[in-house]
């Protein structure tokens, strides 16, 4: 139970964490798309910027201003095509403070920048109506070309990267509200802006930069545009959860509860009321259900056998105990002849031996039921040696599906019973499945045929028989799935042991 509680608590705590992570992954995807879009737009603006700048004649003796690119960067920017990997990662990068305002500077724009600035501004105004992006054109010093007064963005990190010939990018908060509700803003993606600074290259020099920004679309906007798909996904998810829940209840919960109830019935002794369930859901639970019913049947059988054995043992012990008590009372009188006293002592001894034999055979039967099956053995190794009884075997090399020890016990009881009933010959015939035992003794009456294998049934009670010999044989044979059956015969006794 503590483990289950811990798992449930961890699962409950994992839900908001997983949800936030999923929101951040989705928002990060939108950030990357916004960044890629800004880089493409900035490349177009940078191209227009460079063309306009190169079309303007330089001042007398004027050189192309800006950072001169080292060889690796010259190769990159002069390539026929360029690709950019995502520069921003919402789950790893820190969202920077709001974009700082440009810093007033004493620097002045080159006349060529002043001449191309109006055209670039008009281009940005027209394009921004569709792109919804903010564009700032910077010269090689980072000065805003369209500002009323000279102001520079050169101190901004992403602009510094652009003026050194690299594409700079940053995530920045839109305002103070974002810094106060960071988790909610990061989940929605609308509290910050994506900024990209793209270098403008001319004759292997960075003559300026295009500084662009745009707010990444929020997940709510995206999901609103995909409303139908989201609804279908939600419905499918709920239906799937309902189906899985129903299957779990039907295939696991109900059968397990039913097995719990059956186990309680077994514990309460209601073995006879058990029945297989209508369905078990899973093969493993079906196996468990069969095991419960088998266990109940075994317990019921054991309970019945214990009751039967208790009654019979009580009955069998009552007679010798009564005889011993009666003989003891007569001996206490003391007015008996020596012959009478010896007779009573003989009675006590005989009845005591009968009780000892009964208890010994009960112990043997209990051990037989608790024993384990053994490997098949040679039938000739199982034959007992009983005086006055000739045992024949066919075929002589027969292998019986009994262990030698169990086979010896079985055949010893069977041969002993035959000898007690006057037999001088016992024939054993094995056909590969059934062992037939036939003797030339007195046999038994047809009326006793169906009771021969019952515990405590004997036709020699007056001679000291306990009726447990064949019960021990039956107990051993049950370990091997075999059955002992008495067969009606006109001469002697016949038994068959059939193996499954």
Automatic annotation (TrEMBL):
Top-tier EC class: transferase
Catalytic reaction list: ATP + protein L-histidine = ADP + protein N-phospho-L-histidine
Topology with respect to the bilayer: Multi-pass membrane protein
Keywords: ATP-binding, Cell membrane, Kinase, Membrane, Nucleotide-binding, Phosphoprotein, Transferase, Transmembrane, Transmembrane helix
Chain segments annotated as transmembrane: 229-249
Occurrences of domain Histidine kinase (ranges): 312-500
Enzyme Commission no: 2.7.13.3
GO molecular function, one term: kinase activity
InterPro entries the record matches: 2C_sensor_his_kinase, HAMP_dom, HATPase_C_sf, HATPase_dom, His_kinase_dom, HisK_dim/P_dom, HisK_dim/P_sf, Sig_transdc_His_kin-like_C
Pfam families: HAMP, HATPase_c, HisKA
PANTHER family, per the entry: SENSOR PROTEIN CREC, SENSOR PROTEIN RSTB
Record's protein name: histidine kinase
Native organism: Aminobacter ciceronei
């Amino acid at each position: 139970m503590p483990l289950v509680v811990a798992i449930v608590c961890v699962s409950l705590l994992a839900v908001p964490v997983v949800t936030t992570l999923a929101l951040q992954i989705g928002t990060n995807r939108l950030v990357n798309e916004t960044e890629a879009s800004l880089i493409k737009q900035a490349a177009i603006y940078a191209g227009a910027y460079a063309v306009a700048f190169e079309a303007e004649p330089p001042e007398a003796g004027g050189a192309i201003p800006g950072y001169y690119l080292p060889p690796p960067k010259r190769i990159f920017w002069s390539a026929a095509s360029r690709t950019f990997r995502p520069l921003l990662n919402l789950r790893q990068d820190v969202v920077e403070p709001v974009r700082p305002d440009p810093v007033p500077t004493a620097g002045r724009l080159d006349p060529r920048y002043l001449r191309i600035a109006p055209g670039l501004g008009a281009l940005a105004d027209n394009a921004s109506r569709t792109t919804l992006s903010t564009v700032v054109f910077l010269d090689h010093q980072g000065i805003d070309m369209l500002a009323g007064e000279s102001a520079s963005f050169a101190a901004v990190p992403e602009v510094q990267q652009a003026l050194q010939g690299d594409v700079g990018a940053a995530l920045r908060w839109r305002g103070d509200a974002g810094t106060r509700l960071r988790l909610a803003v990061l989940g929605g993606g609308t509290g910050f802006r994506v900024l990209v600074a793209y270098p403008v290259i001319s004759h292997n020099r960075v003559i300026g930069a295009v500084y662009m920004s745009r707010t990444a679309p929020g997940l709510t906007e995206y999901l609103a545009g995909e409303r139908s798909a989201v609804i279908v996904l939600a419905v499918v998810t709920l239906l799937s959860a309902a189906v899985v829940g129903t299957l779990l209840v039907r295939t696991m919960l109900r059968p397990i509860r039913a097995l719990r109830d059956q186990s309680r019935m077994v514990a309460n002794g209601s073995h006879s009321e058990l029945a297989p369930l209508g369905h078990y859901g899973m093969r493993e639970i079906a196996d468990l259900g069969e095991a419960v019913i088998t266990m109940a049947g075994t317990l019921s059988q054991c309970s019945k056998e214990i009751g039967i054995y208790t009654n019979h043992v009580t009955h069998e012990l009552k007679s010798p105990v009564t005889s011993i008590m009666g003989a003891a009372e007569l001996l206490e009188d003391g007015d008996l002849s020596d012959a009478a006293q010896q007779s009573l002592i003989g009675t006590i001894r005989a009845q005591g031996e009968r009780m000892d034999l009964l208890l010994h055979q009960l112990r043997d039967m209990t051990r037989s039921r608790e024993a384990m099956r053994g490997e098949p053995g040679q039938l000739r190794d199982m034959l007992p040696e009983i005086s006055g009884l000739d045992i024949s075997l066919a075929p002589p090399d027969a292998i019986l599906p009994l262990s030698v020890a169990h086979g010896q016990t079985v055949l010893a009881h069977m041969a002993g019973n035959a000898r007690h009933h006057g037999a001088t010959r016992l024939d054993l015939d094995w056909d590969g499945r059934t062992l037939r035992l036939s003797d030339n003794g007195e046999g038994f009456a047809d009326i006793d045929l169906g009771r021969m294998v019952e515990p405590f049934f004997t036709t020699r009670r007056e001679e000291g028989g306990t009726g447990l010999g064949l019960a021990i044989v039956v107990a051993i044979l049950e370990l091997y799935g075999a059955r002992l059956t008495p067969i009606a015969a006109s001469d002697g006794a016949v038994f068959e042991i059939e193996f499954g």
